[in-house]
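User: I would dearly like some help making sense of a protein record. This is the protein in question:
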Amino acid sequence: MTTNALLTRTDGSSFEPTTNAVGPWDGGLLFGGVPAGLAVQEVERQVGISDWQAARITTDLVRPAPKAPLTVDVDVVREGSRAVVATASILAGPKLVSQTSLLLIPRQTTEEPATPAADLDAPADHARTTIHTPHPSIFQVLEIRAGDIRDDSERGWARLNAAIVEGEPASDLARAAVVADLAAGMTNTRGGIVEFINADVSLFLERVPTGDWLSLDLNRPDLESGIAVASASIGDAAGPTGQAVMTSVRAAQAVAVGAS
């Protein structure tokens, strides 16, 4: 069966990744944002957070997520009147793949729909970025507008043109968790070569980005040591919404990611 989604639900908390979930490193490994997005979507489904606002989402990528059946275990580790902390552990068989923690605070006001800010650019202002990988990957459904990232682009936009889980609508928050992982690869790319792979990704949110597109203002790290701290200001059509920060480590083997 052909699907445009990143994963299909095979049972209550069990999922099968599709080729649309695969990252650039290996045809058998998932894009780092996929576990983060899946974790957020499952916390939303199982816990229900409509009265709460996500202030922080941190995903530890414990090991590369395989293109293999995955299960999600959701837990609420703190439930107070001023804050809730929920976690989602993703496993491949008995092995922990990722651990995501969401810090939720009470929703203070009803957020107004985002209206475009007059002084901001738009996705259409940037050339479309085509990522070439040697195998089918998420870049079939992850649209990037940042020109040629080999030329050290400093700003761009991206959107996920697919459901995270087949047949289930994805929230703005879950989509942002997937897309924000792009910041690591984009900031660590030099001349079309990516030598660093991120071990975690954190989103710090003043508000949840709304709409399909997520903007990324990139802060390029120094790649001289074995650790790189990649970061980006993220936002939507109305302006900045928060920060994405990732710890990246030098990979055992670099990967060439052609772009145009």
In short: The two ends are 31 Å apart (CA to CA). The chain has three helices and 17 strands. The mean pLDDT is 88.
